[in-house]
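Schema walk-through. Below, the input block comes first and the output block second. Nothing else is stored per chain. Lengths vary across the set, and this one has 316 residues.
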Amino acid sequence: MRRDHEVLFARHPGNPILTAADWPYPAHTVFNAAATRLRDNTTLLLCRVEDRRGHSHLCAARSKDGVTGWTIDAEPTLKPDPEHYPEELWGIEDPRITFVEELGKYAVAYTAFSRNGPGVALALTEDFRTFQRYGLIMQPEDKDAALLPRRIDGNFAIIHRPITHEAGAHVWISLSPDLQNWGSHKLMLAARRGAWWDANKVGLSPPLIETPRGWLMLYHGVRQTAAGCLYRLGLALFALEEPSRCIARGDSWVFGPEAPYERDGDVGNVVFPCGSTLADDGDTINLYYGAADTSMALATGSIRHALDWLDRHASQ
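--- output ---
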């Protein structure tokens, strides 16, 4: 079939790569996993696992090649703890992982869900066995958060997506000296208005990718249609030492639901990456995404091709 658009991310032919049927304990759906490469080059996916109550927890799956042969933790890796963290009453969701060299630890930002709505929580770990929890660091309603791997102007930085009825749903960046007290909030990427594919609601997808030209962002835009919401991905680039400053933003979306496992599921027409890894060549992006809020899938792309596409299709 002829395509008239450029393919920046190619689906793996074995998709979906993980489903609830792979789990060693009962699960309804498995999706929206954070991703990282461990020190031994094993790929770890920290998956959102939803049970039959509708509550979610996080569970690690490990693979030597990042595609097959997954070893899945026999029990939940990180469970909600509403007794000590009441903001997790209805589960924890949609993690993002950043390795912070200064700390020698992985920072896991995730959504804590309770009666007050979704908020951003943070935990640190060295081994994905034990976690140091910081609790809620961004009040509801807020989600889609990921830490940057290094300080900016002497402060830790986090990308997140607060929602207010007045301001809408846009991507912001905030700074902290200690991972607990956050301020210096700045708007980073605003949702467009009108008929755009990313009008009214945008959010960070995987953590930012540092390149010599800037921080590469893959973000999701949500379009309301007569049939429901449609989630697709776009690209933007931000200044390395001033990541609140957008250098380039693509006008068009670059990856959207097309395959049956992306169109049909608990929430159809959704591709939602929370994690990516880089291959040994330093250019190939392994993009792990939730498909239709039901399964995990993989697509591969290239930093070089993404930056080249932005050069040709950016609006700023």
